[in-house]
Amino acid sequence: MWPNDREDGLLTAARNEMLTRVGPGTPMGELLRRYWQPVAGASELDANPIKPIRLLGEDLVLYKDLRGHYGLVDRHCPHRRADMSYGWVEQNGIRCSYHGWLVNETGRCLEQPYEDTANPKPSKAGCDTKAYPVRECAGLLFAYFGPQPAPELPVWEPFTWANGFREIVLADIPCNWFQCQENSIDPVHFEWMHDNWGSRLRGGDANAAPKHLKLKFEEFEHGFIYKRVREGQSEQDRYWTVGRVALWPNGFYLGSHFEWRVPVDDENTLSVAWFFMRVPKGREPYVQERVPTWVSPIKDENGRWISSHVINQDIVAWVGQGRIADRSKENLRSSDIGITMMRNRFFQEIDAVAAGKEPAGVVRSADAAACIALPNMAREFNAEGIALADFDKDLVLRQRLKEFRHHYGQPAQVRRAFVEAMGIGGN
């Protein structure tokens, strides 16, 4: 137990604050800044090459210049602090609409109209602005907010798979990121929230799901693995032999999709989800020219939280804990061992950063970052595919063909593109 925690194992207010505060200079903020964070879908910049964003308590502007290079700079111009999101992109950067100052992706001020004319030797000393590196991978844009040199961007194995339909789903969640991330190491909630509650919402039996009989939690280089045995299963089942991954530090991996919980600030979270669906055998080669990005609504027209889809159900639980969950009032039990492990790991890595050490999971080798495999219960299907007729033999795959069940609000054009890719016609 950590010295400042309560004797009953619950966190003190001070320890809870350490886990939840993410601004510059905070212990957790400094830790999370050591890792590449997904910030947007690349396709978001197709129609408008400038997007204002707020992440880790900082107001920024994401842009794509006319060369195709990405930049992430301070939202406020270094001249008079005007809003750079109302500027425009040029060949080498983004230009402020107020007085025309031009900055590039490194934050360097390249031009100062009038000053460049009025002064024979204009000085731009002190006029650079805050900037963070941006990389594109598998349709996602990742940014690095920490000290240089930046680590390698991990290329997770699913990013290398061919012949798949991909889509990116964003959601703005009005609560702290950590209560979202703790959900990633909580297998019992699947039984009750997604199965039993989901059944009740559809008018079925409220307690229809098989019970959990056994749980196990393991740590590894890239996070945690939870394993489970439910009624009707055994220890030979993939849920026990392989398991699912709470991806360090703020992700979740289920074999064919990722979810990241990126802090906007202390009380808001950007949910970034990346999905892959292997096209049936016989439809290769399939090349997706553009990965669509869309925003999932989280409330209906009456202001109620949407609860019809899986991740929307999760959101109901997360926001129901408050803007920042008070962990001093919890009652943790044996099913929460994974949550305790995760919290302890964060405290350890926070201490490591404070001591000037590099935290766990940072990848420095380009070779090691090129294709990182994670535990995956469906690797063979995702990498090699199956015939369309065999989709019907698997409950999950059959459901995926019928509708997108993860997030509410899949746009019609994305559904049409999926149907075309899968070759399922009007099904």
* Poorly predicted ranges: none
Strand % is 15-25%
Rg of Cα set? 23 Å
- Taking the alpha carbons of the first and last residues, their distance comes to 54 Å
Total domain modules: 2
Structural class: alpha+beta
> What can be said about the biggest beta sheet?
5 strands, mixed
Q: How much helicity do the residues have?
A: 10-25%
Largest sheet strand order = 16-17-18-12-19
Q: Please tally the helical runs, counting DSSP H or I stretches of 4 or more residues.
A: 13
Number of strands: 19
Mean pLDDT across all amino acids: 94
Q: Categorize the overall geometry.
A: globular
How would you explain this protein's 3D organization?
With about 425 residues, this protein is of the alpha+beta class. It has two domains: about 35-145, Rieske Iron-sulfur Protein (3-layer Sandwich), CATH 2.102.10; about 155-420, no CATH class. Helices cover about 25% and strands about 25% of the residues. It contains 13 helices and 19 strands. The chain has helices at about 15-20, 25-30, 115-120, 175-180, 190-200, 240, 310-320, 335-355, 365-370, 380-385, 390, 395-400, 410-420, and strands at about 35-40, 50-55, 60-65, 70-75, 90, 95, 100-105, 110, 130, 135, 140-145, 165-175, 210-220, 225-230, 245, 250-255, 255-265, 270-280, 295. The strands form five sheets. The chain has a five-stranded mixed β-sheet with strand order 16-17-18-12-19. Strands 2-3-4-9 form a four-stranded antiparallel β-sheet, with no helix packed on it. Strands 5-6-7-8 form a four-stranded antiparallel β-sheet, with no helix packed on it. It is globular.
